[in-house]
Amino acid sequence: MSIDTASLPRVASLPCVTPPVTRAATAVTPMTAVTPMTAVAPSRAAVPSSATLAAAASGRRTALAELLTYTRYFATACCRAELGANVISDRLADQVTTAILTGWPTARTARRDFLEFAYTTIRRAVGLCRYEHSRRSPFTQLSDGQRDLLTLRVAVGLSATETAVALGIPVLSVHRHTARTLALLKRPPSRPTDVPA
Hints:
With 197 residues, the protein is mainly α. Helix content is 59%, strand content 0%. It has helices spanning 23-28, 50-57, 61-83, 87-109, 114-133, 144-156, 160-167, 171-186.
């Protein structure tokens, strides 16, 4: 069954709901208010297991909720790393989250890995947004590959293995290129030297 993503509500437009908290509820399980994404930085979420990804692709609600939590974190961290922590990046993250969740069943049928599929979708959206708004990335002096590594390793917090899966490169390359990129960022900018006449 195909889903029309244009008809889905945008996450940012949903009202902020605070569930009622009673003494009995706090004694058993503490409840927290649901806050808009733009209010706080995303907290680290665990990468969903293969069983969760399979259940989400088949439409199970609990698996979809877990996948939504991780995808929202992943998309927000990537968009903020590339575009800065602002309204534009958070709205883009909301839209990309919807696109990833609705596209995941088809991607899984095509035997794509979730991290690779999600990051490819986010990268494409960020590229279009950067073109439209022409905002400088914090990592402008880096190549695309170096930016991808830092975004996934530092901003998102993926392990070297998860980063290798998302980018489709060997784990040893992730270690080597991450070390080189961090060394490049630590190096002070070179000043032009005077050339004797």
